[in-house]
Amino acid sequence: MLRVENLDVFYGDAQALDGVSLEVEEGAIVAIVGANGAGKTSLIRTIAGMHRPHAGRIEFRGRPIGGLPSHRVCDLGIGQVAEGRQIFPTLSVADNLATGAMLPRAHAARAQNRDRVYAMFPRLAERSAQAAGTLSGGEQQMLAIGRCLMGAPELVMFDEPSLGLAPAIVQDVLKTIRDLNRDGLTCVLVEQNVAVSLRLASRAYVLENGRITLSGTGEALLADDRVRQAYLGL
Fold this sequence. Notes:
10 helices, alpha/beta, 10 strands, four-stranded antiparallel β-sheet
């Protein structure tokens, strides 16, 4: 569904990604793990069209998308739940959701997708007229996911979805991702909780200093001594 080949990304003279290659099969959860500063967010933002690659190729369903503007990438069916949620705090919950349906691909199913989001997150329905900035952290993450789903994506990239949330809320968010995947949504997961993300993932990649250093099934990487020592403290 998604293929990245030999991707190089620079910020000025600093190289953020160096020859990164990976594949995401339709229907999978693919985890990308690594330390802070490894290049995970740079990879997500480049796939999403927010950074222009210096070299390499990005394909979605066989179509080259590297260098396309982000609104065109979204309209092809790639959604993103950004790190830090990035909701519009002064807009209501309902208006935040409406912004997610502005893509041409999402117009026809706007009401259906809104009903789906409210069924998935009843608290958003209860607070539909409330300013998004007054929601709790967990509710804001629900809103960020819901806004993304309003765009009718076929693949969603989740960038640190549990960041700053209480443990109980983290479990709710990860369960939501698992449920969405079971309903057919393909997911790319960048998550600080390495153990949990590897348990969820059918395939995973370890990104270190802008390079892929390990890849395999989530189960295999969870058992790999290098991963256990570097990220799990075992």
